[in-house]
Design brief:
Length: 159
Amino acid sequence: MKIEAMTAADWPAVKRIYEQGIATRQATFETTPPDWAAWDAKHLAAPRLVVRDPDVLGWAALSRVSAREVYRGVCEVSVYVDESARGRGAGRLLLDGLVKASEEAGIWTLQASIFPENEASVRLHLRHGFRVVGRREKIAQHHGVWRDTLLLERRSSVV
């Protein structure tokens, strides 16, 4: 497996993997994937990563948590792995690469909002220096059910 920068040409694979995450009902509150333009506008231009072997097995990207200048170094993490590649280290490679690239870009805080039931994602983030800073109880409804999320964050030691 190798990490590369995501390009617009990767969108069909990225969208397919995102749809798999949506289908689990454990990865996002979204119920349908956006089109490329909407996804592109929501996420930072870099870093955006894919892991290949040789096809895209997963992706990771960052989005701003606020448009306010004081929060320019605080971003939310998205990491999605193809169901066929889960448990094979793709998520680890993606999050390793995303942490490194975010620090090179001057980002000092990464945060993630994860359903508590998504134990694999919680473990992955904890292994990469994230800590649980809180539980947001009944933060939103998902398919008519109130859901909690865990808020995790990672503070850079170099930025």
